[in-house]
Design brief:
The chain has helices spanning about 10-20, 35-40, 65-75, 100-110, 115, 140-155, 210-220, 235-239; strands spanning about 25-30, 50-55, 55-60, 75-90, 125-130, 170-180, 180-190. The protein is α+β, with helices and mostly antiparallel strands. Strand 5 (about 125-130), helix 6 (about 140-155) and strand 6 form a beta-alpha-beta unit.
Length: about 240
Amino acid sequence: GGDDVADGGEDAAVAAARAQGHHEYFVTCHLGLEEVVAAELRAVPGVSAVTAGHAGASFWSELPVAGYHACLRLRAATRVLKLLRRTVLATDPGVGYRSGDTLYAATRMAAPWEDVIPDGLTFAVESRVWSCSDLTSTQLASTRIKDAICDALKDAGRGKPRRPDRGETAGVPLYASLFHDTFALYRDLSGQSLHRRGYRDAMHKAPLNESAAAGVLLMAGWQDMAGPEGLGNDAVLAD
């Protein structure tokens, strides 16, 4: 993983995965389902160092395709994110160096962007900002990240990628978390929320989406009914 920030209190499995250069992922879910998702992850081939967190669980893998295996196998998750870069947002007001500059520089170095965003694909950035010293705007964060990626592609001899049309899911969706001056940039491997998997051509309002419903069923021990098609539909469709 592209991690510049190591936690001195991390467990041995995480430390070993980091030392071996494995890829780091974070899987999001509804609050209260973290342990359910962590248990599901432990059953995915090639996954190690699973840790339940807030509104999700992290895992590591040496397999480049592990994130896609997770997208296919997890029932209670909503998104699967692959870490591209994590770093501290350094500032130096004396020379006018601000968090946005660190954000730009870190993004430029986060990945070989000409490989991550193949020619002809669109990309989009969703940012969340909490309690950062001199960066409070999600729009500014997303703009600086986009600028860095477009400049990297330009340096690689590529043109500026097309913006996704309204309502279109980007070919390469990215997610940026900026929390207490720590910047983490992820590639969203699921594209849309995983509850949209299944047989339906159209989605309808419901009191509980499929991922949340599957998580509740798994907590209750109803393994066979917690499929991606909704409550009990696996059994109906199998008849």
